[in-house]
Amino acid sequence: MDLQRLVVDESVSTLFPPGVLLDELNDTPIETTVFDESVDRLSPDQGVVTFDYHEAFLDSGWVHCVLAGVDQFPFERFQDESTPLTNSTGIHGDAIGETVAGYVLAFARRLHQHIGNQQRRDWSQPDWDEAWTVDGETACVVGLGSLGRGIVDRLTGLGLDVVGVRRTPTPEPGVEEVYTPDDLLEAVSEARFVVLAVPLTDRTRGMVDGETFAAMDDDAYVINVGRGGVVDQAALVTALEDDLIAGAALDVFETEPLPDASPLWGMDDVIVSPHCGAFTRDYCNHVAALVDENVSRIRDGDDLVNRVV
Ligand code: NAD
């Protein structure tokens, strides 16, 4: 591929201003601009950096998504058009790891309740047996990729024992036992926290359902930082209403933004965050490093990193 130009789609502004990425790509040896749909016609000598998918991108020579999850991209179309698609897997472990540690500590130390009470100027101390410490508790991390790694590091650092689930049960440092998805119910049964960090695929869609919540302890929490579709959200609401589980911290949802009418907004032991668990002011630098690397590889005729299609 003779790559001459790189265009940054406005949709990246969900994560950072396009101009900041252009500044970061200053040393890239090709022209870089913001994509202007009304003027620009894409061709195979151009690459695209984007958050959203647009059909027009199939005419380019290469598409890089600034997310790790590319479930909204039609892989078959990319294959048919021989347009390579790369993603940003590998850059989110630290931020997501800290977000998950934050949820875990909020539930144990009841911080989410204090914040809620503060909004109402309500000086309510927790009951004597409400707050607890996480040392020695167990977490089950479902998905041991780059997110899973960042989560395992933070949770073991807080003194939790960690088990994990992934497709092949190969050992993982810091993870006491690795289960396969077939043994998900056994894996979650002893965990105080079940943390979901898998991509949305045909196999993971709805993998956490009513049966999973029934297998969890009634004092356990589910944390979803993967994709909303991994959880059967109606079954989650029922499990929370029926006290099958103690609570949930959710960064991702079946429908985003989470609709006003969702009961999840108003539940006491539910933390809702607006799909921002990976946000960090360094996000843009990390994307730029990946893009730079692949620009060099294309020019040298080497294989792309993080190639999905
Ligand atoms: P990754 O490719 O490094 O890791 C994904 C892991 O999930 C792999 O180890 C894979 O083997 C495992 N996996 C796949 N299917 C599985 C299954 N059926 N059961 C158990 N494990 C399975 O990706 P990553 O960077 O860790 O990101 C994972 C996903 O998290 C992304 O695809 C994206 O959807 C989501 N994500 C969300 C945010 C956020 O802002 N909340 C940020 C980054 C990524």
From TrEMBL:
Key words, A-Z: NAD, Oxidoreductase
MF-aspect GO terms: oxidoreductase activity
UniProt keyword Oxidoreductase present: yes
Keyword NAD: yes
Pfam families: 2-Hacid_dh_C
Domain of life: Archaea
Residue spans crossing the bilayer: none
Domain D-isomer specific 2-hydroxyacid dehydrogenase NAD-binding, residue spans: 102-277
Enzyme nomenclature, EC number: 1.1.1.-
Protein name: D-2-hydroxyacid dehydrogenase
Annotated source species: Halohasta litorea
Classification lineage: Archaea, Methanobacteriati, Methanobacteriota, Stenosarchaea group, Halobacteria
Gene that this polypeptide is encoded by: ddh
